[in-house]
Amino acid sequence: MVNSRTGTYDSLEELARQVISLTGEDPNREGLKETPKRVAKTYKELLSGYEMDPSHEITMFDSNGFNELVSVTEIDFYSLCEHHMLPFFGKVHIGYVPDKKILGLSKFSRIVDIYSRRLQTQENLTKQIFDLLENKLSPKGLIVSIEARHLCVRMRGVKEKGSSTKTTIKNGILLKRRDFADQFFIDSHLKVIS
Ligand code: ZN
């Protein structure tokens, strides 16, 4: 199978074989023989978001005058940090007050999934989700909040085992109406997975 952007499947497999060799391991020993193939397949899956356009996932409906807060919370995501290519993962919470349009509920997790399956920073992931929803829905107010654990922080260096990172962007009526913002934080109860 050939990936036009990242080169061939085979070259990823070969690269994984080289990494194994460079550690001093024998890539031909029983337990490792099939590993390069599995690694190539895994990375292809984890980075499959480049082959998809999240704006194609936007299916909108008329809001029929609904202009209260809609919260879609605790959307699981798994991504790879662009600095270390190690996983970071957690929950995405999205809240918006529609103007004329609402988004099909299943689409939120689809959008999160596509952006997550790329090399990312948490900040950029937050902004990409926010910008897409802002551009397509033009809601009265929007908030996107992500809480995540970064394995590059937990496994390496200072090993900050307990820390989590939270990023939030909001605009419009969510900056002015405290009751909407409060409701969002109650809905998302911003718990961090451990
Ligand atoms: Zn990192």
Hetero ligands: zinc ion
Strand content: 25-35%
* DSSP strand count: 9
Q: Low-confidence segments, ≥5 residues, pLDDT <50? A: none
Based on helices, strands and strand pairing, what is the structural class? Answer: alpha+beta
Major sheet, described briefly?
A: 5 strands, mixed
- Determine the CATH topology of the largest domain: GTP Cyclohydrolase I, domain 2
Given this structure, which CATH class of the largest domain is correct? Alpha Beta
Q: Percentage of helical residues? A: 25-40%
User: Mind telling me the CATH superfamily name of the largest domain?
Assistant: GTP cyclohydrolase I, C-terminal domain/NADPH-dependent 7-cyano-7-deazaguanine reductase, N-terminal domain
Order of strands side by side in the largest beta sheet?
7-4-5-8-9
What is the terminal-to-terminal distance?
A: 37 Å
Total domain units? 2
Q: What series of H and E elements makes up the topology?
A: EEHHEEEEHEHEHEHH
Give the helix tally. Answer: 7
The mean pLDDT is: 91
Shape: elongated
CATH architecture of the largest domain: 2-Layer Sandwich
CA gyration radius, whole angstroms: 20 Å
Protein name: GTP cyclohydrolase 1
Catalytic activity: GTP + H2O = 7,8-dihydroneopterin 3'-triphosphate + formate + H(+)
Keywords: GTP-binding, Hydrolase, Metal-binding, Nucleotide-binding, One-carbon metabolism, Zinc
Family: Belongs to the GTP cyclohydrolase I family.
